[in-house]
């Protein structure tokens, strides 16, 4: 099969839209692209990738090992500033803090997200793999369903992000598209960036929050705002499409958790995340 | 059976040892008790409870909903200071930050833990429960095993914390005590405070990090230092003993995750946590 020229890491839509520019020590300017919006706001995983890149520059270690983000207010496309500070530096790990801020009508800064993150160097980790988790069982990529394979799901507001991602969902988890949600809090699919750029630790920060929310398959529609999202990056991903599974086991009291696992083409569990989100009222 | 007088919430060993004293706006003095040490350091869950209480005082909402802690250096018994700041206050949620610091030989402050946390009011949440997770299957409390029921496990260093907790482990997860670990990354048990104080959201922050590490059942001995621990408190726990299950599914590259679930006597999933820890070398 013919394939378009593949964008490389460092020269892709994702890299351009997550670029940060050093303005002063620890302070980075960024432009939140309208291309990564969904429903009513900029996607939280895209924002996490931006913050991750700023911290990767500010800290002595290159790779996010664990990133804890508390979401404070909904980001809008446009200018933003990321303020970082180094909390601790060690030989193998360093910890930093970052805030993403935008500007109100009066020019005052409004904080969107605050992050604590511990970084290291994935290339220095030992080779031992004693993972007992198994990759999600789902059909081959050509038997999974993307936006062009059927009726468009009714999502209110923007769906610009869907043009930038190549997500093919397991047919068992797309009942919500046709008004027949499974009732199970599960979503599974194949994931890659639309321009073919391979995954790296920063794009994994996007990947963990890129699938439709599990709440859609629980019959709840609408905005599922993230309160907090923590991601562990455990391995540098191999080239090729990723498999992502997300699951919710505790929808109660108006909140739900979402656990994501990301598997690479070499069957390594490369990222694990958990978020606490507000349940839609629908 | 006769039972000793039960300590009440607010008047117990746990409450005394997690007390914080306001020194200045947002700044609290604390004394890290030697009674909550394990192996070579003060237990991370006990420290989290201390930080949780300080933030509960500093923020307008009383209950921790999600607490993300990055552990920077090992705490020692003795004086400490907790510095808090309010990140955002909203109608239903507020977010704060806190650092636990101790003092070096030269009197300089050394940061032990930094926390981001979002608080709310558990009593205002709606009653809906659509939890699909099930409580862990394990024997009745009288058929589970505590320190007085068999050979003492060989843990190097302090085990003072075991006197303050009433933990009875599922016999299926105590093979490590007699040198025959199951090889499964699982640990399950009944949990209560030794003086009978009932659980509340702050003691749950201790509970999620109180069982022996799953790595013991994976045949690894020794110190499993937490890098990051995020806890969701989802419901005010009912009185009575708690059931705790922890599981590791991804031991690789010198790190492991540990997921904990805490269930109360009313079969509610009251807390979920995940930590990233360094795997012991043994």
TrEMBL record, chains A, B:
Listed transmembrane segments: none
Residues of the signal peptide: none
Domain Acyl-CoA thioesterase-like C-terminal: 155-277
InterPro entries: ACOT8-like_C, Acyl-CoA_hotdog, HotDog_dom_sf, Sec_Metab_Biosynth-Assoc, TesB_ACOT8-like_N
Name of one Pfam family that matches: 4HBT_3
Domain Acyl-CoA thioesterase-like N-terminal HotDog: 33-119
PANTHER family from the UniProt entry: CHROMOSOME 23, WHOLE GENOME SHOTGUN SEQUENCE (PTHR38110), THIOESTERASE DOMAIN-CONTAINING PROTEIN (PTHR38110:SF1)
This protein's name: Thioesterase family protein
Organism: Streptomyces maoxianensis
Lineage: Bacteria, Bacillati, Actinomycetota, Actinomycetes, Kitasatosporales
